[in-house]
């Protein structure tokens, strides 16, 4: 899958940026502490000619944002005591995206839209051209924009309909990149689902939750009556599976958090190791992942390690 956006205001397409030379050498580095992706690394180094190791002001900070790790959550922006961190937004080039879609190894596209209007979406769709015919799944990720949400969805579905060669999926982005914050983060995305489930004129397609999803999401969906009821027979196979409004749950920040717990257990002497090279840790990470995916897929509970 490749992801693309129709508006530079989309939070999923931004990176934090700052110059560590602008940071006071005695800064407590709250940005480094709050980053959930370990995407900020700052090291205090001594300036030549200054020898007081105990005096923080005698050195300088080096490092900064590790761009490939940053996913744009924005938590560092608000904690910087000197307001030195910027968010650099970008729009992915639709021409390059179209070239990717023509490759044999790309069979799905995720389109992020802010829901502010159809013009930008239609422009992006037009620029993608016939390349969209090569994919098996088109996912549209959007926020809840209130009473106009369903009308907006129907309008862009009309735009897409003639080119749909496979499945289409609506990703309900309740509270972007916040699932790892705490239990309450899932309320907005579940409320979004409740809102749409009551609308008889919503467009066809699968519906998936995202933005604020975590280990409490399924519990909240069950309370709202939106989660499937699945039981397993003694033999392989599924019985008594009722069709649900919600077809899936995307765990982003929360998945990074739980897998990160395992990654941090890998002994420091291995440096930036590949988890695939450590079978015990890989198995533990897979079990953590299955604890999230299993209930959605209807898998039986796995025994603990």
TrEMBL record:
UniProt xrefs under PROSITE patterns: 4FE4S_FER_1, 4FE4S_FER_2
TM stretches of this protein: none
Pfam families for this protein: LdpA_C (PF12617), LdpA_Fe-S-bd (PF25160)
Domain 4Fe-4S ferredoxin-type: 14-45, 61-90
InterPro entries membership: 4Fe4S_Fe-S-bd, 4Fe4S_Fe_S_CS, Fe-S-bd_prot_LdpA_C, LdpA_Fe-S-bd, RLI1
PANTHER family listed in its UniProt record: ATP-BINDING TRANSPORT PROTEIN-RELATED
Identification of the protein by name: 4Fe-4S ferredoxin-type domain-containing protein
């Amino acid at each position: 899958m490749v992801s693309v956006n129709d508006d530079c205001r989309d939070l999923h397409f931004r990176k934090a940026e700052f110059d560590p030379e602008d940071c006071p050498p005695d800064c407590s580095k709250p940005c480094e502490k709050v980053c959930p992706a370990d995407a900020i690394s700052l090291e205090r180094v001594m300036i030549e000619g200054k020898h007081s190791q105990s005096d923080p002001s005698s050195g300088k900070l080096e490092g900064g944002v590790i761009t490939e790790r940053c996913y744009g959550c924005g938590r560092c922006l608000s904690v910087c005591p000197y307001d030195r961190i910027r968010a650099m937004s970008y729009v992915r080039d639709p021409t390059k995206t179209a070239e990717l879609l023509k490759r044999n190894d790309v069979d799905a596209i995720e389109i992020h839209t802010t829901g502010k209007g159809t013009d930008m979406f239609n422009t992006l769709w037009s620029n993608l051209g016939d390349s969209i015919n090569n994919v098996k799944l088109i996912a549209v990720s959007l926020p809840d924009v209130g009473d106009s949400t369903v009308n907006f969805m129907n309008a862009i579905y009309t735009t897409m309909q003639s080119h749909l060669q496979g499945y289409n999926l609506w990703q309900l982005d309740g509270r972007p990149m916040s699932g790892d914050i705490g239990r309450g983060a899932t309320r907005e995305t579940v409320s979004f689902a409740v809102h749409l489930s009551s609308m008889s004129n919503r467009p066809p397609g699968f519906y998936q939750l995202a933005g604020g999803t975590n280990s409490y999401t399924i519990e909240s969906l069950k309370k709202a009556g939106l989660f499937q009821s699945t039981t397993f027979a003694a033999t392989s196979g599924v019985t008594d599976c009722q069709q649900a409004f919600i077809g899936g749950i995307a765990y982003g920040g929360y998945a990074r958090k739980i897998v990160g717990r395992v990654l941090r257990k890998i002994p420091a002497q291995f440096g930036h190791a590949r988890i695939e090279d450590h079978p015990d840790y890989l198995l533990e990470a897979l079990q953590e992942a299955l604890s999230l995916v299993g209930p959605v897929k209807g898998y039986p509970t796995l025994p603990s390690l």
